Amino acid sequence: EAQVTQNPRYLITVTGKKLTVTCSQNMNHEYMSWYRQDPGLGLRQIYYSMNVEVTDKGDVPEGYKVSRKEKRNFPLILESPSPNQTSLYFCASRHRGGSYNEQFFGPGTRLTVL
Amino acid sequence: KQEVTQIPAALSVPEGENLVLNCSFTDSAIYNLQWFRQDPGKGLTSLLLIQSSQREQTSGRLNASLDKSSGRSTLYIAASQPGDSATYLCAVRRYGNKLVFGAGTILRVKS
Questions:
Q1: Which residue, A72, B47, B59, B73, has fewest beta-carbon neighbours within 10 Å?
Q2: Cβ contact B97–A105 (<8 Å)
Q3: Which of these, A39, A37, A74, A75, lies nearest to A59 by C-alpha position?
């Protein structure tokens, strides 16, 4: 089944404790991205990647890191999480290029930073 | 800067009604527009994608239209059912890669 998977689905952590949220897709998509969703602010892009070893900042990159060492994986790293990073996070992917390429989303990771 | 607005913010209708959700965007230089459904606490499910050169797309009881020049899209849901209750999001993709999302319309279909 074609899908985007994220782990963990739920995470409660404390301020300053480094964490990684994994994202993997099995559709051979070149383009992957991370979004966060907050009440009243909607979905905002954090980082995106056009292909392996090519990443760039989205609208709200502060406090986050990403890497793209393999085409299928795009982990989101919070080096020193803070309470304002409590949010619902989504990973997404699609084929690069073409206006017909729809974006697929993972199931989300709900992160709480205490 | 691209801004996407969805009206209404919330909608409650009796089962069986036909309904229209509206999406407007400020910059007509878009690549495509995508409608998503989001159930509470869940991920986003793609419903329809309309390329910038298209006027509408249909899937089952759903029909989405696009008027790029006026910066508007509508999602028409025919014969609504309680299972259609969810948040509906529209997102435009600019000539680049980022999707810009609206805040969503929360739909409740009463049985």
A1: B59
A2: no
A3: A37
Structure tokens, B89: 């999001």
Is A38 an 8 Å CB contact of chain B? no
Q: Is A81 helix (H, G, I), strand (E, B) or coil?
A: coil
What's the confidence (pLDDT) of residue A99?
Answer: 62
pLDDT tens digits along A23-41: 999 999 999 999 999 988 8
Our CA-based measurement puts residue A12 at a distance from the nearest CA of chain B, in whole angstroms, of 16
Nearest residue in A to B37, CA atom: A105
Residue that has been written with the tokens 């529209």 in this structure: B90
Q: Taking a C-beta distance cutoff of 8 angstroms, is the pair A49, A55 a contact?
A: yes
pLDDT digits (tens, 9 = 90+) for B40-62: 878 899 999 999 999 999 999 99
% helix / strand / coil in chain B, to the nearest 5?
A: 5, 60, 35
